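Sample pair:
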Amino acid sequence: MNRIILMFFVFIYFSFSQDVDYKYGPDKTSTENNLSIYDQFYKQKNYTDAYKSWKYLLDNAPARTKNIYIHGSKIMKHLIENENDSIRRELLIDTLLHMYDIRNIYFPGKEGYVLGLKGKDMYKYRSKESDDLLLCQQTLFESFKIDGYSSSATTLNYYFTTTAKLVKYGEKETEELIALFSDVSTVIDYRQASLTESIFNAKNDTLLDSKGQKNLVKNEKELSRLEDVKTNIEKTLAPHSTCESLVKLYTEKFQENKNNLEWLKRSAKLLIKKDCTDEEIYLNIVSILHEKNPTSESAFNMGVRMIRNNNNNEALAYFLEALENENDYINKSKYAFYVAKTYFAKFNKTDDIQFCVLAKKYATQATTFRVGWGEPFILIGDLYAKTSTKCGSDPLSKKAGYWAAIEKYEYARLIDSKSSNSANQKIEIYKSQIPSQSLLFENNYLDKETFSIDCWYQEIVKVRNAIN
């Protein structure tokens, strides 16, 4: 606590003293000399000798360059990890953590991201005691609160890990960890969708410059980190997040939280994620949530419930409501996809081809709202395969729909690696249904490259058989 008070007064001094030039310090020549010295040692990875000049800049010219803070992390961690004196080591850790706060004063704009880095280092160097761990969690909470759906994988990982450790120590309740899982996993899903789209666009940009290429690599690494975080938090929460345990918890807590919108939202999200939407408590939660605070998200939640009740008409109305009232394109893509799936379900019940037309329409919409997403193309492939025999007048044309379906599955796995398993399974199923070589021969199609399908949809597809 004394460290926090000390840092507070340091911030006040830095923020309000009017007689100091924070860019060049009390002596510009000394500042430039120290900048040159530390920079040369840093480039040589001689972090020990870089420290003295770097510390001069941090203390006297904290606004000189952002590199003070970007490089400072490596310099300080090297010194900390090679320091044997415990008192000296703690002072070095103080400097490292203080550095992040100074950065946010003189180089604002990425406060959430910087607090996430600080929280990570607090966890690494100061998490053995409960009090330190609580301070670490508070820092990561502030980062998460600032960045929200833009939170880094680092912040998400350490925020959840810190909270899990506090639950283990008896400082936090399991319910708080479950609530946090709902929040964090929602952000991960959103960021994965957003990054996948950005990566797809970058890979298809023929004019991508070096800056764009660097950003592409950065996004690919962050996407991989998010997947690791997702795996880790799901593994951590697994013992506490079975349908049985969630239903028991939410049923017990429902009455005291039925006016708490945040609790209702988190609960609904987690029950959907864990596929617990058949439960009565889910209906109670989403019904009161939509009644008290109707939003696109609450309408979507109601639609999910109607699907589980096999009430496709009401589900469709809710999904369309969600789609029409949503402004975020990532979310719009999800709602459009659910509209498409519901129309497909209606076709399966009625055999009315018009529902296929509508299902394709909304699946296509989903791909325009979020490019680089494979699932809508798999759904379109399913529509083609399901109606193949309805789209022809002879044995060859009645099988051409399987060509069209396979092309959609191939495209899905091409643009979205997450769709590969599903796409490959469907390709294996339907490649045995495409026209055989003998059927192509009988219809004079052995040496033709394409086939035109003119049914409830129009496609020109590649002619292939079991051999090609």
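The beta strands are 450-454, 458-462.
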